[in-house]
Amino acid sequence: MAMKLANNATTLLAANITSGATTLTVTSIDADKFPVLSAGDWFPATIIPNTGAIEIVRVTGRAGAVFTITRAQEGTTARAFNAGSRVDLRLTSGSTASFAQVGDDAKLLASQTRNIGEQINAAGPALDPPDDGDLIAGVLAGVATLFTMTWANLVAWLGLLFVKKAGDTMAGGLGFGSVVATTANDLSKHLALYGAAFGFNVTSGTLNHNSSATHDFYAGATRVGRFNTTGLNVSASIVAGTSIAATTSISSGTTMTAGGRIQGNTDIVSAGIVYAGNGLASMQTNGDITGSVWAPWGSASAITAINAQIEARGNAYMNAAIANIMPTVAAQGAGAVGSYVFAKCSAAGVIGAGTAGTTLVPAGLITTGGSSMGAGSYRAMGDFSGTAGAGRTTLFLRFA
Fold this sequence. Notes:
Helix content: 10-25%
Largest sheet: 6 strands, antiparallel
Structural class: alpha+beta
Number of helices: 5
Low-confidence stretches: 328-333, 365-370
Radius of gyration: 58 Å
Mean pLDDT: 77
Number of strands: 28
């Protein structure tokens, strides 16, 4: 609301007015001497009769020669006036109260501060952004006291409260209170990245890491792991203080280490060696298993130890059979037709119809009194090779 003034604005009433009238009409020839009023504008006017007391009014609207007035201002009394009474625009004591006064600590009436704001909104230049030294003005809350600050100070103060959209660093943490998401992929309550397809949320004490496709983990520029719908794939080592468990596949490009067990409901795949017992046992890439449990059988390698054990037990069983089942050839009448003997080839022999006794050497547990079986023909009763020195010891029957 603004007060308007004009120089030497004076006229006469064109018609009588009563004490209750809210409009007055002046001579049309003088009407344009008075200010044009917009909504909220006004000017002071004094009505002066030929005789009697004057009245100060506030003119709040003008339509040509017709003034809209508020009566009995500044201690005067509304009364009737005759046509021909003077109407002057005069600067009165009450109207000057709308001006800020020197020495009153720049205090302004609330209505006047509103006028200032309206003027700024209507005519203030747009600065985007202002210069650091530009002044920002305002009114202190609860009082009519103006203040100013520079744009640079305002930006610095706001920087303590807010984080910029880009290029800023948070000095503290980011909290979401105790609100929980409705579902594991509901990102409306917490942190959404790149729309609603990627982000983090919390549901009933669980932190959910959401991705519409693949979760990749990097150390510098190197990808060290990947989660997707097919399972967990780790390019480096998998290390856990307790157990590693999965309902799908676990795949590691190098080592997989756990303080407890490694458990998968489907495949556990490693491109390298799988260790247990802090490295004391392992499953090799060729399928062999190593560990100290195999050492009593002659090797830490399962395949080597098992083969050696089979050989040892087979030889022990054969030797026991030789000693227990067959008495010495000498006790039977060595070399008699129809007798049996354990022997092997000492020279090239004939396999099939028979083998010459001269090419057979008896086994160490059998004594025949010579380096060969001597005369006669023998038939091998088991696996046998006729190559000199190459055949294994087997059972022979003398048939001629």
